[in-house]
Design goal:
By secondary structure, the chain is α/β, with parallel strands linked by helices. The chain contains 13 helices and 12 strands. The strands form 2 sheets. Strands 1, 2, 3, 4, 5, 6 and 12 form a 7-stranded mixed β-sheet that branches.
Length: 302
């Protein structure tokens, strides 16, 4: 028994540093990430036309992960990660940001919740939207359009950057259809781009090569920053704390240093603009608050 206890003790001593490194430690970022409020606002006003009137959201699906997967050191209780799609309403037109996924994909990836009615509204909105953009190339953001029966038709309004297309494995378990890919409008990579009046994309590679932030300035002056999966939850950017290293290195293939620099820049930007609504990729509490205060509207507009 004493020998067994010594062996177990040795394993615990050896295992503790590995556990801390893989599941607890996040560390401070090295270097900086350029995220400039003045430039975001300049680009938001650089195109002629009316800015968006409202931001609508659909909660299409949910997954559950251990909290430590969301933020290193957060423990092993389950955390719900909702999957959202966004509709920007302009006078006479709409723009979609992220397209969630169809029900078959959600079930194949073990979703714990799926709203078929929300998917039906998103499906219809993809058909009527003037343009579709995605924060990055993962299946729960790009999957809705990549699996769509009319993907080749929708491709004419879909804007994917070269970085979002360069590594098809980032879309696992899906693939963007080649017939649709051939119809994509050419989109050169730029650090920042005015997508529409009041809408700006800001390149933020790290979570994936094609990750980008989307800044929105509405006609009423309300401002939003959609983070995609740079941060899954508010705590990531408020505490500048990454997901567990085991997840980011061995499953997601993230550039942790790049993501940490982005989280620090987002925190600094929020302090600079207290009225800015920072929207993480999968934070149900943040979205519930935005809806309850009237800043975001639940369900897409017809």
């Amino acid at each position: 028994m004493k020998k067994l206890l010594r062996v177990v003790g040795a394993l615990l001593v050896l295992g503790a540093p590995a556990y801390w490194w893989l599941f607890v430690e996040s560390h401070e970022p090295t270097g900086t990430f350029a995220l400039e409020l003045a430039e975001l606002r300049r680009l938001a006003s650089s195109l002629p036309g009316e800015k968006p009137l409202a931001l609508h959201v659909e909660h299409v699906a949910s997954f559950e992960f251990p909290s430590v997967a969301v933020m290193a050191g957060a423990g092993w209780s389950n955390t719900t990660l909702p999957v959202f799609s966004y509709q920007l309403v302009f006078p006479g037109r709409t723009l979609l940001i992220d397209t969630a996924m169809d029900e078959a994909t959600a079930q194949g990836q073990h979703a714990t919740f799926y709203d078929s009615a929300a998917w039906a509204r998103l499906d219809a909105a993809m058909g009527t939207a003037e343009r579709i953009v995605v924060t990055h190339e993962h299946f729960d953001h790009l999957g809705g359009v990549s699996t769509h029966p009319k993907a080749a038709l929708l491709a004419g309004k879909l804007e994917l950057t070269r970085a979002q297309l360069q590594d098809p494995s980032k879309q696992d378990p899906l693939r963007f259809p080649e017939a649709a890919r051939a119809k994509l409008p050419p989109l050169a990579d730029q650090p920042a781009r005015a997508l529409a009046p009041g809408v700006v994309s800001w390149s933020a590679p790290g979570h994936t090569p094609g990750s980008q932030l989307v800044f929105i300035q509405q006609a009423d002056g309300e401002e939003f920053l959609l983070l995609g999966d740079v941060a899954w939850h508010r705590s990531n950017w408020e505490q500048v704390h990454e997901r567990a290293r085991l997840l980011t290195w061995f499953f997601l293939g993230e550039d942790r240093e790049a993501v940490l620099r982005q989280l620090a820049a987002i925190k600094a930007l929020s302090a600079q603009a207290p009225g800015l609504h920072v929207v993480p990729g999968h934070d149900g509490e943040v979205m519930t608050s935005l809806i309850s205060h009237g800043f975001v509207h639940a369900q897409f507009r017809d």
